[in-house]
Amino acid sequence: MAHVRENDLTEGLSGKFGPKFVFKQLRGKTIVARRAKPTTKQSALQRENRNRFKKASAYAKSMMLIPEKKAYYCSMAKELKLPNAYTAALSDYMRKPTIKEIDITTQDSVLTVKVSAVKKDFRLQATKVIALAQDGTIVEQAETIKDFPCWNYRFITSKESI
To answer: What superkingdom does the record give (predicted)?
Structure first.
């Protein structure tokens, strides 16, 4: 990979040049690199990762259309020293949340689940709890959208069916 410096002819170029080279723009600089060789086979893990990144890209594009979300990701990009809001939105989608605590209580055939979860550097916007029967079928599910790391769910279904 070569950096192009002070060349008016190639400044701002991007795309293929001949059969072997490609011009790219990275953080305001023009870069010349060899074209990547196309892969012939994908592993299941590669395919899964590409699909996940495709979904992350769609998520980031949709967040850039909502002014409040774009402003949030702009501030996060500055805070995390990322190049732009789009990259911050991508990072948010790709990072998985961590469950810190789960507390389950039963009182009068009402099952209450308290979940505490966080996501590194970003706000966790929604959680979903699914109650499964012993055979793996879904008995009941609950979802909430909040802006703090602790949620309470109350399931109506009796404890015996879960």
So the answer is: Bacteria
Handedness of CA 43, 48, 49, 54 (dihedral sign): positive
Q: Give every CB contact of residue 151 below 8 A, 6+ residues apart in sequence.
A: 114, 115, 116, 117, 127, 129, 144
Domain ranges for the chain: 44-94, 98-161
Helices (H), the chain: 44-63, 67-80, 85-94
Take residue 11 and report the two structure tokens written for it.
């400044």
User: Left if phi > 0, otherwise alpha if psi is -120 to 50, otherwise beta: which for 25?
Assistant: beta
Q: Tell me the range of 84-88, 106-110, 134-138 where mean pLDDT is highest.
A: 84-88
* Tens-place pLDDT, residues 79-92: 999 999 999 999 99
Angle between helices 85-94 and 44-63 (to 10 degrees): 130
Classified as helix, coil or strand, 136 is coil
pLDDT above 90: percentage of residues in the chain: 29
The answer to whether the predicted template modeling score (pTM) of the entire model surpasses 0.85 is: no
**Starting from the edge strand earliest in sequence, which strands make up the sheet with 15-17, in order?**
2-4, 29-34, 21-26, 15-17
- Hey, what are 22's tokens? 């490609």
